[in-house]
């Protein structure tokens, strides 16, 4: 179980970029990695709890056995003081049996305690690694979202020159320019197509004003 967690950390660490390249959705893959790590930690916590319970059980049995040893020793001394050597002998014989049992239990308990301490240390390391990877996951998720946004924006900007709306706008601009050119041309043609009668009519209008101006000057003696 601990080896599996270590392997998962290696995958998320050194091989993360390669897996993200193949992943359809990097954010979902990162969340999946974290769920697997969380499952490993729960499994480790369960294993540590069982080991601690086993350690405590062995300690309790050892304490009970050692308590009997101490009790028999005290009883043997009391029997000797009372002059009952046979009772003291039987107390010492029972003490010896319990001492052997206590020694075996102490050895088992010390081994179980060492295993518990080791598993506690490993569990703490797993939780620390999990926090580290969670922080890295949050950073990578933010980077992935930022990269997707930039990619979308770049694609939009690169396609804007071929956008139908822009092409349509350019067509309308060409039409307006065409209308303006036609209007200028029509004005030129209109000016060129004036008849001789129109020109003489303008001339007559101009002459009438000149005659009236000359008569006015003569009247006022301003000639």
UniProtKB/TrEMBL annotation:
Compositionally biased intervals (Basic and acidic residues): 137-148, 163-181
Domain of life of the source: Bacteria
Pfam families: PspA_IM30 (PF04012)
Matching InterPro entries: PspA_VIPP1 (IPR007157)
Chain spans, region Disordered: 137-208
Family as reported in the entry's similarity comment: Belongs to the PspA/Vipp/IM30 family.
Name this protein carries in UniProt: PspA/IM30 family protein
Taxonomic lineage from the root: Bacteria, Bacillati, Bacillota, Bacilli, Bacillales
């Amino acid at each position: 179980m601990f080896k599996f967690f270590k392997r998962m950390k290696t995958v998320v660490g050194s091989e993360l970029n390669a897996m993200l390249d193949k992943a359809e959705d990097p954010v979902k893959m990162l969340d999946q990695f974290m769920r697997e790590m969380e499952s490993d930690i729960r499994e480790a916590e369960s294993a540590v709890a069982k080991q601690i319970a086993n350690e405590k059980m062995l300690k309790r049995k050892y304490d009970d056995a050692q308590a009997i040893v101490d009790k028999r020793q005290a009883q043997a001394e009391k029997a000797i003081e009372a002059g009952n050597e046979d009772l003291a002998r039987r107390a010492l014989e029972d003490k010896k049996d319990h001492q052997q049992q206590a020694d075996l239990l102490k050895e088992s308990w010390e081994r179980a305690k060492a295993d518990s301490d080791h598993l506690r240390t490993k569990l703490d390391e797993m939780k620390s690694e999990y926090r580290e990877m969670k922080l890295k996951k949050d950073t990578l998720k933010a980077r992935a979202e930022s990269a997707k946004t930039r990619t979308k924006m770049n694609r939009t900007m690169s396609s804007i020159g071929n956008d139908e709306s822009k092409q349509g706008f350019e067509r309308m601009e060409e039409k307006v320019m065409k209308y303006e050119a036609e209007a200028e041309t029509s004005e030129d043609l209109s000016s060129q197509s004036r008849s001789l009668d129109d020109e003489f009519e303008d001339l007559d209008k101009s002459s009438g004003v000149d005659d009236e101006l000359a008569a006015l000057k003569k009247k006022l003696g301003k000639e």
